[in-house]
Amino acid sequence: MSVMQQSTKLNTNNISSLVGTGAGFDLMRYYTLPDFLGKDAPYMLYYMGKNIARQTDIYDFDDLYEFFQYMGWGELSLVKEKKKELIFHLTGHIIEKRLNQKLFTVDFRLECGFLAETLQKLTENTYECFEEINEKENYIELKAMKG
Questions:
Q1: Rounded distance, CA 107 to CA 131, Å?
Q2: InterPro entries recorded for this chain (predicted)?
Q3: Is 123 part of any domain?
Q4: How far apart are the C-alpha atoms of 76 and 69, rounded to whole Å?
């Protein structure tokens, strides 16, 4: 790995140059990783999300929302703010497709890990993030709880 690759942080400018398809990513995420890692796959995905966030330059919530879109993770929006909890919805065509496919069970642990770590960077509070799938209305509720 070159020195430039090691020091370059991810941001919406440089990830927009990447070409990818969701199908290949989903196969690795929901099929291959669980095959290799077994029951530890969701935990590893969560920490992979945190690791991606550590390598990402995000300075505000608009950057966060834009990053989710560029990554193909869906449209993220803050819907409720409580004293010890932030509630986000993850919506869009990509979410509907993931929820309605019949090949494998989906989770959003990678996104949760990324969100928890990014919120910590933005707010200087520790967060733990959990997802709740609303299949009827095709959205994911991401709850970020202050630690």
A1: 8
A2: DUF2507, NO_sig/Golgi_transp_ligand-bd
A3: yes
A4: 8
